[in-house]
TrEMBL record:
<feature type="domain" description="Gfo/Idh/MocA-like oxidoreductase N-terminal">
    <location>
        <begin position="23"/>
        <end position="138"/>
    </location>
</feature>
<dbReference type="InterPro" id="IPR000683">
    <property type="entry name" value="Gfo/Idh/MocA-like_OxRdtase_N"/>
</dbReference>
<feature type="domain" description="GFO/IDH/MocA-like oxidoreductase">
    <location>
        <begin position="152"/>
        <end position="266"/>
    </location>
</feature>
<dbReference type="InterPro" id="IPR036291">
    <property type="entry name" value="NAD(P)-bd_dom_sf"/>
</dbReference>
<dbReference type="InterPro" id="IPR055170">
    <property type="entry name" value="GFO_IDH_MocA-like_dom"/>
</dbReference>
<keyword id="KW-0520">NAD</keyword>
<dbReference type="Pfam" id="PF22725">
    <property type="entry name" value="GFO_IDH_MocA_C3"/>
</dbReference>
<dbReference type="Pfam" id="PF01408">
    <property type="entry name" value="GFO_IDH_MocA"/>
</dbReference>
<protein>
    <submittedName>
        <fullName>Gfo/Idh/MocA family protein</fullName>
    </submittedName>
</protein>
<dbReference type="InterPro" id="IPR050424">
    <property type="entry name" value="Gfo-Idh-MocA_inositol_DH"/>
</dbReference>
Amino acid sequence: MSENPTTAAAQAATPQTSLPQDVRVGIIGVGRMGADHVERIRGRIKGARVSVISDYLRETAEKVSAETPGSRVVDTPEEVIAAEDVDAILIASPGAFHRDQTLAAIAAGKPVLCEKPLAMNPQDAYDVVRAEAASGASYVSLGFMRRFDAEYAELKDALDAGELGTPLLLNCKHRNATVLPGFNDTMMVYDSAVHEIDAISYFLEEPVVSVQTVVPRTTELAPEGLHDPLLFLFRTESGVIVTDELWVSTNAGYEVRTELVGSKGASTIGQASGRVTTQLEGGRWGGDVPLDFRPRFVAAYDAEVQAWINAVADGSNVAPRSATAWDGYVGAAICEATERSLTADGEVPVALEARPS
Ligand code: ISE
């Protein structure tokens, strides 16, 4: 059974570091996600510090570095990876660069936490899987933070303990308040559905054999050209059906719900929780919905990065609950089939290469 993030958080108080000093992290890319990670390593992660930063926009890197004592800026990702004062690398650059930067980290023998996606297509992701296998060590963690969400972990543990019996259906809902103009159906797959695609690997631990897209009526709030909502249906090898209802222009807030239906019971996570208010004025009853994924998953991101740092410090490099290079490859293969299913009739098969030993 995999490590519980709450346990990981508890370990944070007494990090199991075997290095003589904090893990020195090199950050590639300090846009929205990279800057968020720098802030969490600076303020909330134990046993680590940011030592080297690069960004495509040098002034952005300099601004973040100025707020991060002990860090310095270099011009290129290659310099981050090669730097002597970098023990581990966090990649938060645009997805198109992830394959090459991850391969360079493996070649340098340095552990790497790469934001999703691992690569832009299955062939490139498989290159990373093969390079890591050839190196004979584990280096690659992939940033699917939901695996470190406390409710995700609770559901996974209940399933693994047999509490829900044999899994039959996994019903997912994924809603964003808004997306930027230009967001298209393909981005629905690679940017958003990719999280549920990883949830299939995480919860069910079995291959997806086919995928089908069902297109309902589109909301008038969708950006020009986007079909929104979309419904994706995945079929696994043992016959579990996964539904993913994706709706990204709700104009309401960020919601992620997951229901696992098993032969002995059904269990749902991501329901509205927290404070519920009855307002006499206006006769309203309800609570708050976060506007985007950062407040919703901040604890999961913290637990993910802490678990990674702990794994780097103890030499295992990849935390037990983390997505691996193989998970990144599987996700890329399913995304590619899902993209094809946007315009295909019926179920599109998913083909996987053999997993290198
Ligand atoms: C965004 O890029 C993310 O990764 C969020 O986690 C996801 O929920 C959202 O739909 C994406 O646009």
